[in-house]
Design brief:
Blueprint: H1 2-38, H2 41-48, H3 55-67, H4 74-84, H5 90-115, H6 127-139, H7 142-149, H8 154-163, H9 168-174, H10 177-193
Helix pairs in contact: 3-5, 4-5, 4-10, 5-8, 5-10, 6-8, 7-8, 7-10
Length: 194
C-alpha cells in the first residue's frame, strides 16, 4: 500500500510538471505569434541582429544554454528552426537539437560523477541546486524522466544524478525521454503553424 501511495505521488509530480510545460509552451506560442504578426523580417533583424540569421551562433547559444542548466527554453530554438530552415527540414533539425540536448545532459551527468564530493556547491551549498537536490533525494532516477519531459532544468538534474551516483545505463535510458519531448513539442508547434 505504501508503494501505491508513492507511485501516485510520482504520477502527480509528473502530471503537474507536464501541465506546467504545456502552459509555458502556450505562452511562448502566443508571444511568437504576436511578434510575428506585429513585426516584419526587418524588425526581427533589428531586434535580434545578426544572431537570427547565423545558424552557427544560434547553435553555440543553444549548446551553451543546454550545458548551463537550460537558461533559454528549447522551444525558442524549435521556433527559430521552423522559421529559418537553416538546419534543414524541420523534423531533422529537431532531431539535431534533441541529440545536442541529450549529449549536453550526459556531459553534465559525467561532470557530476567527476565532481562528486569534490566541490561544495554540488553538495547542497548552492541555493539553485539545493531545490533540485531535494527533489532528487525524494524521486531518485524518476526525476531524470520528469526533467527530460518538463520545464524542470534537465542539465541541472543530470549534474545531480551524476553526483548522486545514479547508474550511467539507467541515466542514459531514462534521459531518452528528452528526445521524445523535443519531437512532441515540435509536432505541436508544427501543427499550430499549419
Amino acid at each position: 500500500m505504501k508503494w501505491m501511495k508513492f507511485s501516485n505521488e510520482k504520477t502527480d509530480f509528473l502530471v503537474k510538471n507536464i501541465l506546467k510545460g504545456f502552459f509555458f509552451l502556450a505562452i511562448l506560442i502566443l508571444i511568437f505569434y504576436l511578434l510575428r504578426r506585429g513585426t516584419t523580417e526587418e524588425d526581427r533583424l533589428l531586434w535580434f541582429g545578426s544572431i537570427y540569421n547565423n545558424p552557427y551562433l544560434v547553435l553555440a547559444v543553444f549548446v551553451g544554454s543546454e550545458i548551463i542548466f537550460g537558461i533559454i527554453p528549447p522551444e525558442i530554438f524549435m521556433l527559430w528552426s521552423m522559421e529559418t530552415g537553416y538546419l534543414g527540414p524541420y523534423f531533422l533539425s529537431i532531431g539535431t537539437l534533441s541529440l545536442i540536448s541529450y549529449a549536453a545532459g550526459f556531459l553534465n551527468f559525467t561532470i557530476g560523477k567527476f565532481l562528486k564530493g569534490k566541490v561544495g556547491w554540488l553538495n547542497g551549498e548552492n541555493k539553485y541546486l539545493k531545490k533540485y537536490q531535494k527533489m532528487f533525494e525524494q524521486y531518485g532516477s524518476y526525476l531524470v524522466i520528469v526533467a527530460s519531459v518538463t520545464p524542470i532544468p534537465f542539465s541541472a538534474v543530470a549534474l545531480l544524478a551524476g553526483a548522486g551516483g545514479l547508474d550511467k545505463t539507467i541515466y542514459l535510458l531514462y534521459s531518452l525521454f528528452r528526445i521524445l519531448r523535443y519531437f512532441v513539442y515540435a509536432y505541436i508547434l508544427w501543427m499550430i503553424e499549419m
